[in-house]
Amino acid sequence: MSKKEYLPIKEAAQWLGVTISTIHAWIRRGHIREVERPVTISVRCVPVCDLKKAFLVNCKLCGKTFKAKHPLKAAFCSVDHRNAWFREKALADMPRGRVRPRRRRKARATKSYRAAAK
């Protein structure tokens, strides 16, 4: 890679190993900035500093920055942190006090079943 400050979207996609539509989606979501550079014609470019940070994500539990395979889907740096976060969430959502079990309704025989039994 050369010492460029900006890369066109097509080159940025090749450099990151993703498709051009992925780069456009990241721009739409605000994950990467887009800059128009007037060369001979206006070219839509992406800053290289944003591309270097494209796969970095903060863990929801510990706040540690890690490199993710899918940066928009990743939220935790490890499986243990994911399990701990969901365990805390499940405990917070549980009702307090005694929980009564639901009463099961008795199965009723339908008219067609009764007619067939006779």
Architecture overview:
The protein is built from 5 helices and 5 strands, in the order βααββαββαα. The chain has 118 residues and is α+β, with helices and mostly antiparallel strands. It folds into 2 domains: 54 residues; 37 residues, no CATH class. A 3-stranded antiparallel beta sheet has the order 1-3-2. A two-stranded antiparallel sheet has the order 4-5. A hairpin with a 6-residue loop joins strand 4 and strand 5. The termini are far apart. The model has no long low-confidence stretch (mean pLDDT 80).
What is the CA-atom radius of gyration, in angstroms?
27 Å
In round numbers, the mean pLDDT is: 80
Number of strands: 5
Order the strands across the largest sheet as they lie in space: 1-3-2
Oligomer: single chain
Low-pLDDT segments: none
* Alpha-beta content class: alpha+beta
Any idea how many domains?
A: 2
Count the helices. How many?
Answer: 5
Query: Sheet bearing the most strands, described?
Result: 3 strands, antiparallel
The shape is: elongated
| Sequence of secondary-structure elements | EHHEEHEEHH
What helical percentage do the residues reach? 25-40%
- The end-to-end distance, rounded to whole angstroms, is 84 Å
Strand content: 15-25%
What is the structure about, briefly put?
This protein has 118 residues and is α+β, with helices and mostly antiparallel strands.
Topology, please?
Layout: E1 6-8, H1 9-16, H2 20-29, E2 35-38, E3 42-47, H3 48-52, E4 56-58, E5 65-67, H4 79-93, H5 111-117
Antiparallel strand pairs: 1-3, 2-3, 4-5
Helix pairs in contact: 1-2
